[in-house]
Specification:
Largest sheet: 7 strands, mixed
Number of helices: 10
Helix content: 25-40%
Length: 292
């Protein structure tokens, strides 16, 4: 195998709670993570030169050691003493700095790709273990599907797959720093925490409306005051047929759960015409696990 094509899929958080802050600056979380259909396309090809070459359709993305794909490839090259170089062609479709693990899922796919290209025989668990060194969301992006994430996000428990859901994704024309949002969170001031166990119960019951009703994201209390447009998009979704709508991750992306595709399409048209969101996509939940 000289080349491999990969789909690096985005995620949303059906629930996100922060329990505390560690001495090293990381936060302890409890999150229900869900893979969705939106993905970046990645082509990885062996090259004779001992280098890592990344090209992207987005000119502003770093293509050096500041790119998580680069970090993943270099980690594997160093660890397994691989002298061959790698060219990575990245076609980015997941919104950037959007709370959808776009960089982390690209890194997860790079780990998977290196494993396949060089026949390393790494298990999913080993790739997840290596992924922690790149970013807290990378292990989940290796595993994919529906999962409870704990610790800093690296302790994962696979959950029953959610029932099929139509999802509308809307990102306003702003980027949010995950680091800044977490640093700005005053955990002692949080009065209401998301019902993570309740979300899991609703998933086990395979009840879409109950899952939607129990969704919660403690970081909304930080990001929405900074960027009120997030709340406007949420309300627009709710007024146009969403069963519920919420910010994903640290934001600013908003996702809405819709009862059918037709209603999601109508809301998509409304949001595009209104203009608060620059990127508006219809997608679905994606429940397959590793395969990438």
């Amino acid at each position: 195998m000289e080349s491999i094509r990969l789909k690096a899929r985005a995620k949303i958080n059906l629930g996100l709670d922060v329990l505390g802050k560690r001495d090293n600056g990381y936060h302890d979380v409890r999150m229900v993570m869900q893979t969705i259909g939106i993905y970046d396309r990645i082509i990885m090809t062996k090259i004779p030169e001992d280098e890592i070459c990344i090209v992207s359709n987005l000119a502003f993305l770093p293509v050096n050691e500041n790119n998580l794909i680069y970090k993943a490839v270099k980690m594997i090259k160093d660890m397994y003493k691989i002298s061959s170089g790698i060219k990575v062609e990245l076609n980015k479709f997941i919104p950037v700095a959007a709370g959808m693990a776009g960089g982390s899922t690209d890194a997860a796919s790079a780990l998977y790709g290196m494993n396949r290209l060089f026949k390393l025989g790494l298990s999913t668990e080993k790739m997840m273990e290596l992924g922690v060194g790149i970013g807290a969301d990378v292990p989940y992006c290796v595993m994919r599907g529906t999962a409870l994430a704990e610790g800093i996000g690296e302790k994962l428990t696979r959950l029953k797959p959610v029932p099929h859901m139509w999802i509308l994704i809307a990102k306003p024309p702003i980027n949010v720093s995950t680091k800044l949002v977490y640093e700005s969170l005053d955990i002692s001031g949080v009065k209401v925490h998301p019902d993570i166990d309740g979300i899991i119960e609703a998933i086990n019951a395979q009840d879409v409306r109950l899952i939607a009703a129990r969704m919660g994201n403690v970081l909304e209390g930080v990001t929405i005051p900074m960027y009120p447009v997030i709340e406007k998009i949420k309300q627009d979704m709710l007024e146009n047929g969403a069963v519920n709508a919420m910010m994903s991750g640290s934001g600013p992306t908003v996702f809405g759960i819709f009862p059918d595709e037709a209603m999601a399409l109508r809301c998509q048209s409304y949001l595009k015409a209104k203009g608060d969101a620059r990127q508006v996509y219809i997608t679905e939940t994606f429940s397959s696990s590793t395969g990438i």
